[in-house]
Amino acid sequence: MSRGSPAEEYRIPVGRATTIVDVAERAGVSKATVSRYLSGKSEVLSEATWKQIEDAVAALNYRPSQIARSLKGGHTRLIGMVVADVTNPYSVAVLKGAEDECQRAGYMLALCNSGGSPEKEQLLLAGLRAYRIEGLILNLAGPGGEKVPEAMPADLPVVLLDRHLPAGRFDFVGLDNIAAMGEATRHLVGNGYRDLMLLAEPLRGVSVRIERGLGFREAVAAAGCSGEVCEVDLRQEGAMGAALARFMAGPDRGPRAVIAASGLVTLRTVQAMQALGLRMPGDLAVVGFDELEWSSLVGPGITTIAQPTYDIGIAVVRSLLARLATHNMTEPRSTIFTGRLVVRGSSAPAGAARHVRPAGEG
Amino acid sequence: MSRGSPAEEYRIPVGRATTIVDVAERAGVSKATVSRYLSGKSEVLSEATWKQIEDAVAALNYRPSQIARSLKGGHTRLIGMVVADVTNPYSVAVLKGAEDECQRAGYMLALCNSGGSPEKEQLLLAGLRAYRIEGLILNLAGPGGEKVPEAMPADLPVVLLDRHLPAGRFDFVGLDNIAAMGEATRHLVGNGYRDLMLLAEPLRGVSVRIERGLGFREAVAAAGCSGEVCEVDLRQEGAMGAALARFMAGPDRGPRAVIAASGLVTLRTVQAMQALGLRMPGDLAVVGFDELEWSSLVGPGITTIAQPTYDIGIAVVRSLLARLATHNMTEPRSTIFTGRLVVRGSSAPAGAARHVRPAGEG
DNA sequence: TTGTAAGCGTTATCAG
DNA sequence: CTGATAACGCTTACAA
Questions:
Q1: Which CATH architecture fits B177-307+341-355?
Q2: Residues of chain B with CATH 3.40.50.2300
Q3: Least CB-CB distance to A298: which of B11, B70, B298?
Q4: Per-residue pLDDT tens digits for A217-228
Q5: Mind telling me which PANTHER family this protein's record contains (chains A, B) (predicted)?
Q6: B296–A contact, CB cutoff 8 A
Q7: Less Cβ around it within 10 Å: N or C end of chain A?
């Protein structure tokens, strides 16, 4: 056989994609034998045959169709992931871990963004079902997540990420929010703050927020100081500013501090404080949930509760793979990570607070 | 037929997924007829039949297998997207636009992260090929991207995102980097800065960086002021600090300013400046590429060149869909967006610069 | 060690 | 209007 240049040899034919039959013909064997080669059954093939097929595959630059394989065997090696907000740094960081772990296990991730809309979430789940995903990683869009089971086959392995359902029928991977909130609260109280407020988006139907609210109330009660939970609708322009202004105008119970219940809330809090000319921590101390790349850059640095997001991503896939391995016959399992308080200037001791103005205000 | 409770009626059978045959049996028709229903051929079906099938589908909560459909028709309705860095806010913002547009067109996105490694990129492309994606959105990992064509069927529609190849064989969607860089440079010169430096990750093999370098040199030459391009390897601890220190220690040619060639470089620049105690813009003015959520929060606010990322995401999918529609028979097309300079305090006029210390330094 | 043939869940092409 | 039947590309008994 005259061998052309490598470039020519490897050119992929235009038009119909090469199939197992093309390879079989070129190698002078049957499809079945090629299939055995593809499944790596080297014990059962003669060395000569193996080599022939190997060459044919290389020459044709052949890649078996995962579609056809899936149809036959029922294994798509596809995992679906639906997040409530792709632009949330938390989601992205988790996604990275999940992606890595999927690749390691030979699975492909199909990522979707519900944008926080339960309706869109339902649509996406239906779409993923059509692709016969083998497992689902779900970061619930919000209230209404109870309908998830209806949209999916009852035996589909599901792992809930960050937010869970009351039922407890699914695996779950997330943070110990109560403990994390307790640590944050005690840190502030320990630093002399006496009038605390938790800023959160509307709690209803979102487990994370509810838990963080609970942890806050508990810790505040234990410390015997003032603590209010304030729900802020971030879609409403100026809502955050109004909430902060109201808090600052309240009766003087001692040094004031806020805890922002999510990365987005942290951002909006700092923005609003800047607009109101509130100094951090002089006028108001701040602790934020979720470590953000800019946490150390703003003002005196923002104290945050960091989550091990990459590890969470790995854990969520592992949880799914474990379930896959047992054909979904295991009890629902929760994997709970611990947050880590990263202390910076925004929560410095109340007395010692150097009254630094936010930069850029003069 | 006795009807159970809705909940019971809709329960999805465990075990084998329901197929078109189940629906056909329940509706008392043939699979072919069900298939016609699924393809929406209402003109050709009797109203009674239509209704029967409709009921059966609902009762069984049936969803046709996209896998089987793909195998038959060759249309997977799957689009692959490989990005160099999922954690880059640019990528995420584009992803959001792309995702929305895909959903609108009834396509599903399979997202992969090459992590900037050309080897991993090759692996991912091979994986996507197995799934018979109909189109590919590719944000090249870096040097070595020339091998992409080999990994993919020659007739696969490809759109390059942000970074392109010299060959120009593919569609491309990205920014007019030369113009954007020119605007940034002229802005700084206009505000009295005379000694400029462009901070970028190593240019070699990454078109965006090369173009930004080019645009910088051109603009600086046109303005007749000093301008150096400094390549910084961000993986090396302290490299950014060293580069900045060296720049500051150079001969006095007038007010100094840096342009950070990407969002990540901006972050590292500001971090290093803070570590070195450099005031912004007093000691050093800053303009950064890519608008970041925290741009307005740090110091006096960071002047940035904002990209219309969401629109870029939409454009990249549209470009692909257009190519899909013409069976890949169109000439390679480039869609170039224009950056927008968002002016903030970090590049305030050199004379008028209020010497604000980064907050938190005392 | 290898080949033959059935079947995975659809759609499309025929007939009827 | 509807029903058989043959693909689609692959895997897997079952034979040889």
A1: 3-Layer(aba) Sandwich (3.40)
A2: 76-175+309-337, 177-307+341-355
A3: B298
A4: 999 999 999 999
A5: LACI-RELATED TRANSCRIPTIONAL REPRESSOR, RIBOSE OPERON REPRESSOR
A6: yes
A7: N
- pLDDT class of A15 with cuts at 50, 70, 90: low
Q: CB contact, 8 Å: A293 with chain B? A: yes
Beta strands in chain A (DSSP E): 78-83, 108-113, 135-138, 158-161, 171-175, 195-200, 226-231, 256-260, 285-289, 303-306, 334-337, 340-342
Confidence of residue B11 (pLDDT cuts 50, 70, 90): very low
CATH number, domain B1-64: 1.10.260.40
Q: Are B68 and A63 an interchain contact pair (Cβ–Cβ within 8 Å)?
A: no
Q: What is the pLDDT of residue B156?
A: 92
**What does the pLDDT read at residue B342?**
98
Which residues of chain B neighbour A76 with C-beta distances below 8 Å? Answer: 67
CB A320 within 8 Å of CB A135: yes
Contact B127 A111 (CB under 8 A): no
For B76-175+309-337, the fitting CATH number among 3.30.565.10, 3.20.20.105, 3.40.50.2300, 1.10.3720.10 is 3.40.50.2300
Residue of A63, A70, A112 lying closest to B99 (CB–CB): A112
Which residue from A178, A80, A56, A192 is spatially nearest to A138, judged by alpha carbons? A80
Q: Indicate yes or no: CB of A12 within 8 angstroms of CB of B297.
A: no
Phi, psi of A4, rounded to the nearest 5 degrees = -75, -170
Question: What does the alpha-carbon distance between residue A164 and residue A172 come to, in Å, rounded to a whole number?
Answer: 7
Mind listing the pLDDT tens digit for each residue in A66-106? 999 999 988 999 999 999 999 999 999 999 999 999 999 99
CA distance B345 to B348: 5
Comparing A16 with A143, the larger pLDDT belongs to A143
- Strand C bases near protein CB (under 7 Å) are 1-5, 7-13
From-to residues of CATH 1.10.260.40 in chain A: 1-64
Query: For B79-124, what is each residue's pLDDT tens digit?
Result: 999 999 999 999 999 999 999 999 999 999 999 999 999 999 999 9
